[in-house]
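Re-run requested by the PI after the first attempt was lost when the workstation crashed. Everything re-entered from the original request form. Ligand of interest: zinc ion.
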Amino acid sequence: MRAALAALAALLAAAVPVVAAPGDDPALAALRAGDAYVSPRVLGTAAAAEQATLAGNAAALREAGRPVKLAVVLGPVGAPSLAAYAERLAAQLDHDGTVIITRPGGAVAVRTPLPRADIAARLRAADLEAVANPVERLVQASRIAAVPVEPDEPDVEWAGLALLAVALAGGGWAAAIGMGRAGRMGRRDLSEARAVARLHLDALRGRAGGLARRTDLSEEARGRVERALGTYADVVGALQQAATTEAVAALVPRIDGALADLSDVAAGVGAPFPADRPFEGLCAADPGHGPATAEGPVVGIEGPVPVCTACREAADGGSPPRRRLLPREGRPVPFDETALPLPSS
Ligand SMILES: [Zn+2]
């Protein structure tokens, strides 16, 4: 039981932003641990929630094969310019994708892996410096400038090359192009399937975390919550290893089973949630934030909606949260607008 609670604490701690040792560049430390950083010296108490928003945006882009590191900083930390700072961060992080940094006042520095005139032109046309909110600035910049990098999936690449060689040997150009497209679709489908499974896993964690904090669970019910958390931890690991959409789909029954079990436990303590609506009762900005304990605004949704305490505090501080994004047909889409079922096994 104690071990299980320690495991739960570790799982919950995983959602908390990293704090750097004194003297370090906190942006560098945070971007080593994740894809987003928001300086509390810029956004104060809203920084953590805003960082979570940015991290969700970056995760969706990463799943879409467009990895990006995003940071809101006070200034270029010892570098002569924001652009030089972005370049230095990319080198320090050994990051092969895009790095985008902004600071109060509107300046944005974008570092892409290779110079891209088309992207520079689109960034200029977007007039990002006029966007007042630095987080919104980064979200908009990332949609333009997060360029695709080739995913490290040699099996798919090799299979594609072998098929391409066969098709070229037979003079089948049209077939070869068709196969190339099919290969890209396969990688995208895998990324999107992973992102959906991850969303449901985070809902599982949010649900289990909420139940674990209750004091009125029987020993038996508590055991079931702990088993659900165990399933969460196992499946998160398995999902990272899953190299095909079929492998992702094979994990779905375990996620569904754990959600159904928690549904049963919740009904037993008069806090029912329908197993077929796994996000109900969780934060409307991101189910991974955990149970909704307040109401507040969420960008893009009508009226106040149920949110977690951190999102409410962020809204009170003038920065209402944005919804978690999922990659859908290569574009980031708010999780509740994708109407995605889990990939069926
Ligand atoms: Zn929230």
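Saved to the shared folder this time. Residues 1-22, 151-181 have pLDDT under 50 and may be disordered.
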